[in-house]
Design a protein that fits this description.
2 strands; 216 residues; adaptive immunity; Cd81 Antigen, Extracellular Domain, Chain: A; 77% helix; mainly alpha; transmembrane helix
């Protein structure tokens, strides 16, 4: 059940419309940074393997097989080690993920402002960011005044003044998007880790109990 829940959360994060709209973008020959998906794929793999390993442990307990319970314990230790390694990697790279996406957005934004922008897809990339995140422009001064003179790049509001006032920085929106998603991944990883620790303890207790029990 835990493996199924983790797998479901990971698949939802993988196919979330906001992240897929942004991370599938391509600016010329450059693909949008998709480091974020590395953590998602690890979570999907852990969830799927947990479901299989859970079945193995359940069958081993029913059959009172020390071999199956020992294999179950070993698989859990390997999964736990992989999860800890993935958690450390995620913690180290949590700021870098948003930073890479912001740099990709800034490059597209600069191309969209250039006179020859019609020859590339910078404008289309920027508009996708703006429409998906409901924002307009980066944090710098150019981004602040963008709604004044390039309203074709920004989501349309009811009025010009409303467009100027309500346009949020896309850098801020990108930070909010990925911090929220990474927060969910972190919670899922902690839940999995706690469940794994209890599973390892209980499997060893059961294995020792079977070993010490009388032979019928």
């Amino acid at each position: 059940l835990a493996g199924g829940i983790i797998l479901g959360v990971a698949l939802w994060l993988r196919h979330d419309s906001q992240t897929t709209n942004i991370l599938y973008l391509q600016l010329g020959d450059k693909q949008a940074p998709n480091t974020f998906y590395v953590g998602i794929y690890i979570l999907i793999a852990v969830g799927a393997v947990m479901m299989f390993v859970g079945f193995l442990g359940c069958y081993g307990a029913i059959q009172e097989s020390q071999c199956l319970l020992g294999t179950f314990f070993t698989c859990l230790v390997i999964l736990f080690a992989c999860e800890v390694a993935a958690g450390i990697w995620g913690f180290v790279n949590k700021d870098q993920i948003a930073k890479d996406v912001k740099q990709f957005y800034d490059q597209a934004f600069q191309q969209a402002l250039m006179a020859e922008s019609e020859t590339n897809n910078g404008k289309a990339v920027v508009k996708t960011f703006h429409e998906t995140l409901d924002c307009c422009g980066p944090d710098n001064a150019i981004g602040v005044i963008t709604p004044l003179w390039r309203d074709d790049l920004c989501p349309k509001k009811d009025s010009f003044l409303k467009n100027l006032i309500e346009s949020s920085s896309c850098h801020k929106k990108i930070d909010e998007l990925f911090s929220g998603k990474l927060y969910l991944i972190g919670i899922a990883a902690i839940v999995v880790a706690v469940i794994m620790i209890f599973e390892m303890i209980l499997s060893m207790v059961l294995c020792c109990g079977i070993r010490n029990s009388s032979v019928y």
